[in-house]
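Human: Not sure, check this?
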Amino acid sequence: MSKRRTLSAIIMTLFLLFSCGGQLQAEKLAAENKNNFLDSLVKIGQGFQEIFGIFGNAIGDALGLTAVKSGDKRNKVGEHFKKIGNGLTETNNKLKELAGQMSEAKNADESTIKVVEDAIKGANEVFEKLVDAITKLAGVTNDSATDIGDTASAGAAVAADKNSVDTVIAEVKKILDAAEKSGVKVEKGNAGSPVAASNSTDATAVLAANAAAGANAGPKLADEVSKADPWAMIDKIKDSKTTAGNLSQNNHYDAGTLAVGTPNHANGAGAATNADLAAAVALKAMTTSGKLSATANEVVGVKAAGVSAVNKVLGVFDLIIRKTVARNLDKIREAVKEIQYSETTGTNTQDIQSTATK
């Protein structure tokens, strides 16, 4: 009887030892799994911060900086678009790398990983649309021989190339559509009042006169551009037509038609709104063949007005792109924050326990 009790005690002791050892091993394995999970999250977080930095550096760390200046050739506008496109492409490539890291995340709940992957996929699609549109914009603003806002000094204004203006309108529409679908509010802005073509000294003559614009028309155009709302300008470009044919001083036209229409009167042609006039100036100032009209002593001021109009368009354009990128990256960031640890990833809890106690 005594020997039997002793044997039972030994068996019980061994059982407890094995049970305790198995439990310790299971706890150690669980701790390692959690550490692996946290290490994965750190790597994902570092990759995500790098993505934010890449795009920030691509188009500058501050808004409101002038993209172009007086004396710049029109290809400076194209270079600006190209810089943004390159930044978006690099950002998109880094996002794809981040998507690859998702599959390597250890001990993460698969449903939460799927949410991140879907957010990245959505951002990829948006960025690819933006890059395509921006690349086309760069392609029609690449004249390296002509100044931004170039004038036909003491001569008639010259219509902008219709195909180039059509491209700008079409691609701006695509970018604004992508922005709005990403949750960015694209403002309509204040378009202002109609601008009449009553005299050859009016602002309208600089844009579309069939002879040299009269004295003081240049400063009047500069005033119109100065008070133009950039949001309204980009909105007017988006909604523009490019109706070919002679422009009439008695009618009021949209931005696209003002840019590509044939000058037919010394007074130029009326603009539907102040924003249409300023947007038309920007379109003529940066696309192929367009020229403004100015008296000889107002050439510099008219060119400066053209540059100002272009900078207004590019400024709001940059802001819309930034907001669109930020919205999509924020969706990914929020999804990353929700990644959860799972003890059952790759193997189930029972497997861990049974392996530990074998």
